[in-house]
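Project outcomes to date are best conveyed with an example. Our students and postdoctoral researchers have been running inverse folding experiments weekly, and each run begins with a structure described purely in C-alpha cells. The record below, which covers 296 residues, was selected by the lab manager from last quarter's runs and is presented without edits.
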C-alpha cells in the first residue's frame, strides 16, 4: 500500500498483458465478434483495467494521522473539562452551581461524542486504503494470470491478430483468429478476465460506500452557548429611520437688498455721515392738520 507511484507501478505489472488482450479483442471484433463491454472502442479493455490508475493511498494515510492527532487533542480537552467541572462542584453550591454543572455536563458529553467520531474515522481510513489496494492487486493478478494461459501461443496469436488488423488477407492469419483468438476472447477474456475486472470495480465502489456510510452515521452534535454569551446581531438602521435622523437641510439665503431700509438706524449708510444727516435728507411730515376751508 502506498503512494500514486506505487499504485501505478503495481498496475504496470499487468499493463503489457492488457495491451496484448486489446489486440486480440480488436482482431476478433474485426472478424465479427461483438460485446458491449469489450468492443465498443479499441481502448475499452484498458479502460476496465485503469479505473484506479493514479489513486493516492498515501493521502488516506495522511488524513488518518491528522484525525488521530485531533482525537488526542479532543481527549485532552475533555479531560481538562472534567477536572474543571469537579473543581466547580466542590467550590460552589446552590441553584446556580447546579445549572452550571448541568451545562458543563452536556457540553462534555457532546465533546466526548466528537472525540469518539474522530477516532472512528481515523480507524476507517486505513481500512478503506487496504480494501482499495486489494482490489487493484486483484486486477493485476487476474491480468497476469490470463496472460499465462496463452503464453506459449502469444507470438503466433499476436502476429495473426496484427495481420488481420492491418488488413491482410492471409488465410493462415485469418484462420488463426477465427479458430483460436475469437474463442479465447469469448471464453477467457470475456468470461474470466472481464468478470475479475467487474468484481474489482464493484469492490472499490463498495469500499467507498461503506466508508461514507460509517462516517455519516450519527446525529448532529451541538454545543450549548449561555444566552449571555451569544453575540448580538449588529444593529441595522432602516432607510426611513436614516432619513428621519438626518439633519434638516439649511434654508437657501438670498443677497440682502441694497436699500437704505436694511441699514440699522444707528449705523451710517455712508462713511462720514451721521445718522442725523442722513435722516434730514427726507423732509419730516407736518404734524398740523391742513385747513379744509370749512371753518369751525
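After processing, the design step wrote out the following sequence:
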Amino acid at each position: 500500500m502506498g503512494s500514486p507511484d506505487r499504485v501505478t507501478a503495481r498496475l504496470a505489472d499487468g499493463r503489457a498483458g492488457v495491451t496484448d488482450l486489446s489486440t486480440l479483442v480488436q482482431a476478433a471484433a474485426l472478424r465479427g465478434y461483438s460485446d458491449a463491454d469489450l468492443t465498443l472502442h479499441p481502448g475499452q479493455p484498458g479502460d476496465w483495467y485503469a479505473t484506479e490508475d493514479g489513486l493516492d493511498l498515501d493521502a488516506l494515510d495522511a488524513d488518518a494521522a491528522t484525525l488521530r492527532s485531533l482525537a488526542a487533542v479532543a481527549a485532552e480537552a475533555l479531560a481538562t473539562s472534567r477536572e474543571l467541572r469537579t473543581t466547580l462542584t466542590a467550590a460552589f453550591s446552590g441553584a446556580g452551581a447546579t445549572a452550571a454543572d448541568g451545562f458543563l455536563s452536556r457540553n462534555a458529553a457532546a465533546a466526548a461524542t466528537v472525540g469518539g467520531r474522530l477516532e472512528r474515522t481515523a480507524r476507517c481510513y486505513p481500512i478503506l486504503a487496504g480494501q482499495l489496494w486489494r482490489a487493484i492487486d486483484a486486477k493485476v493478478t487476474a491480468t497476469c494470470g490470463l496472460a499465462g494461459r496463452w503464453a506459449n501461443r502469444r507470438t503466433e496469436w499476436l502476429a495473426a491478430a496484427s495481420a488481420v488488423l492491418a488488413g491482410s488477407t492471409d488465410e493462415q492469419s485469418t484462420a488463426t483468429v477465427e479458430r483460436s483468438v475469437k474463442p479465447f476472447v469469448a471464453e477467457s477474456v470475456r468470461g474470466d478476465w472481464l468478470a475479475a475486472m467487474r468484481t474489482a470495480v464493484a469492490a472499490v465502489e463498495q469500499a467507498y460506500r461503506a466508508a461514507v456510510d460509517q462516517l455519516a452515521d450519527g446525529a448532529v452534535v451541538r454545543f450549548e452557548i449561555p444566552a449571555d454569551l451569544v453575540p448580538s446581531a449588529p444593529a441595522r438602521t432602516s432607510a426611513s429611520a436614516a432619513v428621519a435622523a438626518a439633519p434638516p437641510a439649511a434654508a437657501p439665503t438670498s443677497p440682502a437688498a441694497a436699500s437704505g431700509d436694511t441699514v440699522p438706524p444707528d449705523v451710517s449708510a455712508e462713511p462720514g455721515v451721521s445718522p442725523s444727516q442722513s435722516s434730514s435728507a427726507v423732509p419730516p411730515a407736518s404734524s398740523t392738520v391742513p385747513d379744509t376751508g370749512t371753518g369751525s
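The two ends are 142 Å apart (CA to CA). Confidence is low (pLDDT under 50) at residues 251-296. The training component of this project remains on track.
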